[in-house]
Amino acid sequence: MSKPGDLALDWVRTLAPYVPGKPIEELERELGITNIIKLASNENPFGPSPLAIEAMQRALAETWLYPDGSGHVLKHKLAKKLGIDVNQITLGNGSNDALVLLAEAFLAPGFEAVYSQYGFAVYPIAIQATGAKGVCVPALPADSAMPLGHDLKAMARAINERTRIVFVANPNNPTGTWVDARELEAFIAAVPRHVVVALDEAYFEYTGDLPLQNGIEWLARYPNLVVFRTFSKAYGLAGVRVGYAVSHPSIADMLNRVRQAFNVSVVGLAGAAAALEDTDHVTAAVQVAVSERARVAARLQKSGTKVLPSAGNFLMLHAGPDAKARYEALLRGGIIVRPVGNYGLPEHLRVTLGTPEQNDRFLKAWEA
Ligand SMILES: Cc1ncc(COP(=O)(O)O)c(C=O)c1O
After folding, report:
1. So what's the pLDDT on residue 212?
2. Is the peptide bond before 171 cis (omega within 30 degrees of 0)?
3. Residue 1, pLDDT score
4. What does pTM read for this prediction?
5. End-to-end CA distance of the chain
């Protein structure tokens, strides 16, 4: 044995860790500049509702106590809003946590889970951490109607008797691509009942006029479906880490067995519950993102940059062979976007839609 870390399980030692967006403070330290904008992690540039901020400030006085491990208040509010039963909800420390709970509960060495090439990077990590085999299905080609999107037909063919989970991100990050509601329902209906469909709707609120389905409405028909949502994006609460899974109560029961008893903090529970009260705040932020999505995409395309179709609060650009140099030039101008070489897309960059002013600053720098 050379290092004690070598004692870790094979599938952990060979795991490639998640690559996060560059934090603002890091760029400040590196370049000694200020007035930096981060368009790198699909956060909501308008932040959380003032009601959520007040609730979190009040909750600070309670932080010497453990949180309510059952998440009673938040779950009841969610159940009412979504028209589901409380026992269908599993709260997570971000939806990332809930995705990991699903993998822990359903996967082990000898089992398989299917996901799409260019699918959200957490899926292969969550799968591999259990020792199960991740089956990565080639995405749709770049010249298809939904370039680099999920190929549901090929994903269905990749399912076998060892498969326990198939991950579908709708829309997907980092591509922004989505699957049409009818095609997705046909896929879910055809998935064998020994396989759980993990439908990740982290960007659901940004759908706008696009033909995406609210997966929660399908739960009664497809008991092997699990829908994931988050407070990190449209609700502007990425920093306090609250997300959830909605499923058949028997699946929620299993996820709650592997869940840490206090996985969502006192501050997170208070912020999320209060954020649900302020639909105007969410609607306003989403409206800006949806209109900026069209405006920024049109402007980029006009100046010759190819942009993938997006149903999220971000756009994936084809930056070309000098993508890295363009990323670095943006950094020097105080603009952090997201390189996606770790997804096997070294010529692309992903940019989060910020405020209109931030987007203008990005466009100006991009076109310079
Ligand atoms: C598709 C998708 N799913 C899940 C997540 C996880 O988000 P969180 O853990 O903040 O809820 C993200 C975050 O970027 C995402 O893009």
Report:
1. 86
2. yes
3. 59
4. 0.97
5. 53
